[in-house]
């Protein structure tokens, strides 16, 4: 369809289109005039993102993308509406009860009816670039609209406070029970540790263990020394019992044996001299030889006495080594036992420390949840309070009229086109071409026209012959 055809259809159906357009506009204006005037009370609340004074942390949910949408849902929830109803005591209003009886016949509850009624005229709009939420309530009464908007704002703030303090109260009760159990566990662990310390006589385990460890180290050192002395004395005893006993240091250093050896040396020299001068049978030679034998006997006796002392010393060293070894083994067993006792005590001590740590954490959480449960400040606050509007917000006459003109025009054009489709007529040469698929050879002017107007012809279509020049192959329309 060309634009010229479209205009020709509108000209032909102008009265029907005009009638439809007029009905739409007149009806819209009449309805707008007859509708009761509605007033919109607007209040606004702002969500605060400052740190929580109890936990000293910023509310983590405030930065989430869905946080503001959640606040809008809370504002539009049944819980907030019920709080408004109870705060304003709307169920006690006689006119509201009468209206409820009239509209519902007493079915359902009055609170449910009021919740649906309030939510129907409530409009909540969050700001796109800030944390401000606008609350608007529509009502025929300006004062009622402003009052309901402020009531919804305050109910929303109280509800958010309940949503924060309610779980905090439940957590506080939970932490109180857990704290009591942790206190009992701590007392039990402390009693076990105290009983263990009393049973084992432990006052300062680490200090006593250090002392016993030092004593063990000292005994170990003494054993090493005793073993060295015992080994030395054993070697000397072996030497004393052998053929080299006269080379022992004790024998060499003994003054009596040294004196006897000196006397024996002098007597040997004298014996040799006398033997050469007097002969072997001389009485003096025999006397000197007897003296030398006596000296040798005394030297051997004294040497045996000295070597006997070495044996005794070795026996004493062996005995001392055995005593030190026994003391060392006893001390080692004592230290091991003390370590075992200390380890067991450390286990009990760690149980006490763990129980103390759990108890301290639970006490801290209980105190924090108690403070949160007693919190009276919400993260939302009223930014602007609604005032009774002086101008009604609906119906909007100018807007409704413009919309009626636009929709009426569309509907009028649609009706004209629909009528044309149900009753198709030839209104231009283009219609003939479109209907018959044949070209237009000529046209006659409209009857009674003052002059020929090509835009308003009555088309006379002639069908072209199937083959040009064939007689009798054309017909007129």
TrEMBL record:
Pfam families: GNVR, Wzz
Annotated spans, Disordered: 228-248
TM helices/strands, residue ranges: 397-419
Keywords from the UniProt entry: Cell membrane, Coiled coil, Membrane, Transmembrane, Transmembrane helix
Membrane topology: Multi-pass membrane protein
Compartment(s) of residence: Cell membrane
Source organism, top-level taxon: Bacteria
Cited InterPro entries: Bact_polysacc_biosynth/exp, Chain_len_reg_EpsF, GNVR, LPS_length_determ_N
Claim: Membrane is one of the keywords in the record: yes
Domain Tyrosine-protein kinase G-rich: 344-418
Regions annotated as coiled coil: 257-305
Residue span(s) of domain Polysaccharide chain length determinant N-terminal: 5-88
Keyword hit for Membrane: yes
PANTHER family given in the database record: FERRIC ENTEROBACTIN TRANSPORT PROTEIN FEPE (PTHR32309:SF13), TYROSINE-PROTEIN KINASE (PTHR32309)
NCBIfam families, sorted: EpsF
Protein name: Chain length determinant protein EpsF
Organism: Pelomonas dachongensis
UniProt gene name: epsF
């Amino acid at each position: 369809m060309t634009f010229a055809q479209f205009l020709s259809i509108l000209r032909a159906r102008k009265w029907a289109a005009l009638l439809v357009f007029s009905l739409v506009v007149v009806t819209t204006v009449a309805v707008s005039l007859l509708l009761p005037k509605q007033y919109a009370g607007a209040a606004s609340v702002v969500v605060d993102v400052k740190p929580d004074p109890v936990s000293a942390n910023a509310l983590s949910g405030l930065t989430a993308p869905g946080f503001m949408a959640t606040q809008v849902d809370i504002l539009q929830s049944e819980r907030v509406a019920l709080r408004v109803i109870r705060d304003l005591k709307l169920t006690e209003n006689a006119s509201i009860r009468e209206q409820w009886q009239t509209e519902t016949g007493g079915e359902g509850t009055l609170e449910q009816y009021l919740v649906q009624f309030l939510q129907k005229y409530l409009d909540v709009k969050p700001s796109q670039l800030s944390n401000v939420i606008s609350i608007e309530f529509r009502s025929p009464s300006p004062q009622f609209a402003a009052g309901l908007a402020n009531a919804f704002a305050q109910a929303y703030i109280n509800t958010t406070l309940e949503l924060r303090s309610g779980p905090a109260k439940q957590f506080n009760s939970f932490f109180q029970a857990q704290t009591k159990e942790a206190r009992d566990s701590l007392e039990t662990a402390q009693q076990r540790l105290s009983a263990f310390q009393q049973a084992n006589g432990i006052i300062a385990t680490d200090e006593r263990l250090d002392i016993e460890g030092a004593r063990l180290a000292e005994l170990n050192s003494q054993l090493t020394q005793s073993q060295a002395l015992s080994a030395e004395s054993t070697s000397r005893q072996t030497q004393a019992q052998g053929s080299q006993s006269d080379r022992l240091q004790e024998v060499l250093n003994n003054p009596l044996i040294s004196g006897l050896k000196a006397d024996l040396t002098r007597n040997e020299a004298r014996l040799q001299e006398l033997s050469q001068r007097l002969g072997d049978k001389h009485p003096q030679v025999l006397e000197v030889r007897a003296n030398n034998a006596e000296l040798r006997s005394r030297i051997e006796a004294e040497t045996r006495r000295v070597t006997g002392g070495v044996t005794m010393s070795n026996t004493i060293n062996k005995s001392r080594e055995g005593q030190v070894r026994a003391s060392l083994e006893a001390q080692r067993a004592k230290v091991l036992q003390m370590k075992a006792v200390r380890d067991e005590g450390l286990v009990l001590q760690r149980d006490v420390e763990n129980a103390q740590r759990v108890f301290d954490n639970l006490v801290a959480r209980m105190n924090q949840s108690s403070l949160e449960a007693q919190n009276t400040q919400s993260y939302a606050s009223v930014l602007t309070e609604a005032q009774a509007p002086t101008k009604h917000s609906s119906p909007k006459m100018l807007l409704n009229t413009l919309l009626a003109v636009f929709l009426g025009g569309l509907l009028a054009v649609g009706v004209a086109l629909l009528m044309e489709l149900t009753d198709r007529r030839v209104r231009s040469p283009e219609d003939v071409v479109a209907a018959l698929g044949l070209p237009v050879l000529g046209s006659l002017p409209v009857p009674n026209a003052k002059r020929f107007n090509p835009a308003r012809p009555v088309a006379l279509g002639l069908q072209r012959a199937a083959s040009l020049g064939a007689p009798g192959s054309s017909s007129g329309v």
